[in-house]
Design brief:
The protein is an alpha/beta fold. Helix content is 47%, strand content 11%. A six-stranded mixed beta sheet has the order 1-3-4-5-2-6, with helices on both faces. Bound molecules: adenosine-5'-triphosphate and magnesium ion.
């Protein structure tokens, strides 16, 4: 599958290989915007950035036997909590923060493209990607690799059932772990940022290799308020009439009802509120706090907004 977006990429940084969804140089403006758009408690962002920076400052200077960095940060949490956006944003913020190590490269792996390869092929595909593509890019200078939905690549071998997960998956996980060990030993300026919805589906040996595992939970009440307000303000930038609805009583109630929903659903509830009737859809400037409250209530009642 070819990269979907990113029209302004520098051709020198494009990696055309199976399993590579995106490649570019860092920092990248659109990634920095993602980092800012994701609302999580500040200590979470601080920890992530500090760990990523440390990977490039301390790790190259220490012997591996004394400091067994693997260069892996793992983000886990429910769907729609900002893991993929944070991973991309973190890559860019890290490159922006460290300015003395030359140009940073970025690769995003699409694990499904590897795992769905014909039986017996995924092991080779993974090996090719990590041992050749990633290794080559890492030899050129600092490299950050995002492994989105990593449970596809490093499936828990202990949980494989024979009919659903053939031996091939088992071998692919073994191959990933072996390659990661080799890469970690050879390239201290390499950082993997992995994400997963299913911490329990990831192989324990992979989780154990992570230098930091950060649980990105559902938004707190404070975060819900910021996410709802931010989404309304984005609409108000186009339809200024609605900017005052954040002061309405119903808006405060909507905040309370949004606790327990994921962040993506909260943003979508505001959009869905514009589609509650045809007139508001024709002119979203008619949106009211009551519309948002009704939409959030509906999301929290229905199965797709089920409280986890
Ligand atoms: N914490 C958050 N704060 C604000 N917006 C968020 C947050 N999390 C998610 N969103 C919104 O949801 C969109 C999707 O987020 P993203 O794809 O990063 O989530 P994810 O955790 O990777 O989801 P999935 O597990 O389904 O892959 C973002 O572009 C943003 O609009
Ligand atoms: Mg994701």
């Amino acid at each position: 599958m070819k990269p979907l977006h990113f029209p302004d990429r520098d051709p020198d940084y494009v990696v055309d290989a199976k399993g590579v969804l995106d490649s570019r140089k860092l920092p990248d403006q659109s990634f920095l915007e993602l980092w800012d758009a994701i609302i999580v408690d500040q200590p979470v962002k601080d920890r992530l950035l500090a760990q990523a920076v440390l990977n490039f400052t301390l790790r190259p200077k220490l012997k591996r036997s004394a400091a067994p960095f693997h260069g892996i940060i793992l983000l886990v949490g429910p769907p729609g909590t900002g893991k993929t956006s944070l991973a991309r944003g973190l890559a860019s913020r890290t490159a922006e923060t460290i300015r003395d190590q030359g140009k940073f490269r970025y690769i995003e792996v699409e694990p499904h493209a590897l795992a769905s390869a014909a039986l017996g092929k995924s092991q080779q595909a993974v090996r090719h990607l990590l041992a050749e593509v990633v290794a080559e890019q890492a030899s050129l200078g600092p490299l950050i690799v995002v492994l989105d939905e990593v449970e596809t690549l490093a499936a828990d071998r202990a949980k494989l059932s024979l009919e659903a997960n053939p031996v091939d998956v088992h071998r692919a996980t073994d191959a990933v772990l072996a390659q990661l060990d080799q890469l970690a030993a050879q390239y201290p300026q390499l950082l993997f940022i992995a994400t997963s919805n299913f911490e329990n589906a990831i192989d324990a040996a992979f989780v154990s290799r992570a230098d930091l595992v950060e649980d990105i939970g559902l938004p707190t009440a404070g975060a819900c308020e910021r996410i709802l307000t931010d989404t309304v303000m984005a609409l108000a930038a186009v339809f200024p009439r609605i900017k005052n609805i954040v002061e309405d009583r119903e808006f405060q109630q909507a905040i309370q009802h949004s606790v327990g929903l994921d962040a993506r659903r909260i943003r979508k509830s505001v959009l869905a509120a514009c589609a509650r009737d045809k007139r508001t859809a024709l002119d979203p400037g008619r949106l009211t706090a009551a519309d948002i409250l009704a939409s959030v209530e509906q999301a929290s009642r229905t199965s797709y907004g089920v409280r986890r």
